[in-house]
Amino acid sequence: MRIDVLFADRVGIAHEILAVLAKRRLNVVAVEVDPPHIHIDAPELDVPGFGVLDAALRAVPGVESVTPIDILPGTRRRLHLDALLAALPDPVLAVDRACRIVVANAAAATVAGRSEAALTGADFGRLFGDAELSDLLVDNGFRLAAGQEVTLNGQPFLLDATPIVEDGRAAGGVVTLFAPSRLGERLNALQNFDEGGFDRILGESAPIRSLKARAARVAAVDAPLLILGETGTGKELIAHACHRASPRRDKPFLALNCAAVPESLAESELFGYAPGSFTGAQRGGKPGLLELAHGGTVFLDEIGEMSPYLQAKLLRFLNDGRFRRVGGDREQTVDVRVVSATHRDLDAMVAEHSFREDLFYRLNVLSLQVPALRERGDDILLLARHFIARACAQARRPPCRLTVAASAALLANPWPGNVRQLENVIFRAVTMSDGAYLDAADLELAGARMEAETGGEPAEPSSWDEAAAAFERGLLRRLYPRYPSSRKLAARLHTSHTMIANKLRKYGIPDGT
């Protein structure tokens, strides 16, 4: 039986309590003293004997109660700790001040190829074949952020260390080893926490409905995907949505913009680098996106900007899933889906020999064409209202609305920068205005449109009415060929049929077009 003795602390009381059990020849196998409690494990104590012992212990000055318990608290903590360590998927080791292993979980024992007991007492650095590693831990006060790479039984891990503090100084530390793919999952959670699926792609126009339907089909197929479309159409958003709808949804989605980094950096970012591969390289090397995203998706944005050298290295990886780190001699195999995107005409680049034809075919197994904003005009106002709500929230100002003239200006604009340009125009207008409505002038689009109509510098109007009339006439002339009736045009501009009919007569449209 195990008992909990509650007592008023005083010198010698624990000894007196144990003497009572010794006097009755009760074998004690474990004692835990945690004032005002003393927990005792006496296997020979039974229920009948407990009543006699209870009376004897209460006779000891300071003893307040004696209660049977099922397990000693220290034993419970050890069992819970063992269960917790066993449940952790990452290798975890606790080390003392001398960097000798005190505790290792099952994952660490499996990777090391030893039993947990065999790891106990081993020098931490020597376990990894790096005697200086123990000195590095001690010198840093057992503080290392995940980034120091070590190798255990031929497998690379990123090391993270947290100190155990006693009396204000480090008494050792807890070391966690992350496989690159596990760190990739953490990066994915940080970078893509608010990225959604196809529900995040706003729009009800026919082109966008067709895109969503096709994207949902290709998302489920585990093959390279090439996303084409003009700048600002939302290609990365489509790539995220396809990842979220794929069997790899629970694994990392990591991106590299091939146009934003130089070739040497892009290579190490994508493939990683080996220890000592170049001056300034991180001690121990560094995994690249392919390793970090193991099991998930790597998104290569602006693939058309990739250098010929990297094109060849990427082609080799796509062919057999194998690669070498920069400066390394060991081949690695990872399982990732490559999704790429570009606004460039890859067919033309292949013809000009500026993009590898064989790589183009490997990337273009599945493809999506993202429509330009001008091709999905029915979505312009829907997107504008969404961006207005978001911009107002960011600016901490009351919501505002578009006037009829502003809506018409948005619909008439050609949007060469697509959705990104629309978002920026709305954000600027919301930021720079204070009213409850956004008018056409707030959008700062009229000048560009008048210049396009006149083929040069916009003519300076003599009055406000002349400027408004020029805007109306240009808008109706632009839209009438696509909506060749007053009713269709009124529906397109969300206004009355009578007003549109009057305006068409005023400006001699269609005869005057």
UniProtKB/TrEMBL annotation:
Primary localisation category: cytoplasm
Source superkingdom: Bacteria
Keywords: Activator, Aromatic hydrocarbons catabolism, ATP-binding, Cytoplasm, DNA-binding, Nucleotide-binding, Repressor, Transcription, Transcription regulation
Ranges for domain ACT: 2-74
Compartmental location: Cytoplasm
Domain Sigma-54 factor interaction: 201-431
PANTHER family reported in the protein's UniProt record: HTH-TYPE TRANSCRIPTIONAL REGULATORY PROTEIN TYRR, TRANSCRIPTIONAL REGULATORY PROTEIN
Protein name: HTH-type transcriptional regulatory protein TyrR
Organism: Azospirillum himalayense
